[in-house]
Amino acid sequence: MGNENVWSLAHYPAKYMQQLDVLFDTSEVFSSSHNKGVQETIVQEIQDQPECKFSDKDIRLAVRRCYENLRRTFLEQQSGKEELVEQQSKRRKYRSRRERKFQRRSSVVTKNEMDKYWKLLSLAYVTEESEDPDNPNGIIEHKLDWRSERLSTFMSTLDSRIAKKQPASPGLVAKKVRKLGEPSNTTPPG
What residues contact 52, with CB distance under 8 A and at least 6 apart? Predict the structure, then answer.
């Protein structure tokens, strides 16, 4: 079973939490003894269902995502933490943008490129972005100084393939104004 099962499995943990009257303690970390007990109860309940076709790994991932969503909601409701929540929200938003960019690039990689380069790359090689404080519709790109020019050229080639693959459409016009900012201070992946 793959990651696609996790999406169809997503509603199960909350459903069984309600049926079994067990709740995560969102003021505690996921690995706390109480939350581990809740996780095991929900995992077992889902596995005991005759229609269960999900792997243990997928079920545990869905339960963890359920906890993380509940925890995020809990943290957002805490007074005095609005700034922290806003920062986390922005980080998630830009990480999600990077993940989508990585996935789009991976969809246009040739078999030869996959064998030579792509299987060695990860999300860490995608340029970082941040919000432009001067322009609400702006994005600042932070170049990865440690990324080679050859790799940057390869990424640009993939971006060109993506642009050619997607027909021009008014709904797909870039709404964000991009500008180059200070280089990223992240370290190269291991």
Answer: 46
Give the pLDDT confidence score for residue 164 in this predicted structure.
Answer: 87
3 state SS of 2 = coil
Asked if residue 125 lies in contact with residue 151, where contact means CB atoms within 8 angstroms, the answer is yes
Interatomic CA distance for residues 92 and 122, integer angstroms: 17
Q: Which two tokens stand for residue 8?
A: 């169809």
Share of the chain above pLDDT 90, in %: 17
pTM of the model: 0.55
Token pair listed for 17:
């939490």
Averaged over 164-180, what is the pLDDT? 69
Residue 155 vs residues 100, 125, 164, 173, 182: alpha-carbon distances, Å? 14, 9, 14, 20, 20
